[in-house]
Amino acid sequence: MHVSITIMYWLFYLSIFGVLLANAVNPRFFWKKFESWKATSEPSKTYFVTRRITSTIGLIIITLIMVGPTIMYLLDK
Predict the structure, then answer these.
(1) Distance between CA atoms of 34 and 76, rounded to whole angstroms?
(2) In whole angstroms, what separates CA 48 from the centre of its chain?
(3) CA–CA separation, 37 vs 75, rounded Å?
(4) Mean pLDDT per 10-residue run, the chain (77 residues)?
(5) What does the pLDDT look like over 12-26, one tens digit per residue?
(6) How far is Cα 68 from Cα 37, in angstroms, rounded to an integer?
(7) Domain interval for residue 11
(8) Any idea what the Cα angle at residue 67 is, between residues 63 and 72, rounded to 5°?
(9) Number of structural domains, the chain?
(10) What is the Cα–Cα distance from 77 to 72, expressed in whole angstroms?
(11) What are the angstrom distances between the C-alpha of 60 and each of 3, 11, 16, 47?
């Protein structure tokens, strides 16, 4: 595989990782920036806990996708 394609994959995965990490750390910020205009009041704590949990699950999945092929390559050697 070409190095440029590998770099593109890593940039793509790292951008998703960054968004998920920021959402897991501060879901209220993302709600204010992207969804507050639709609401008449701020959502409950449960909403933000749910967003934090789903972002953490997404972080785990994207980490496995990013590192999985590298681990498989190293195990094949």
Answers:
(1) 44
(2) 15
(3) 49
(4) 80 93 95 90 94 96 88 86
(5) 999 999 999 999 999
(6) 39
(7) 3-76
(8) 140
(9) 1
(10) 9
(11) 25, 17, 12, 20
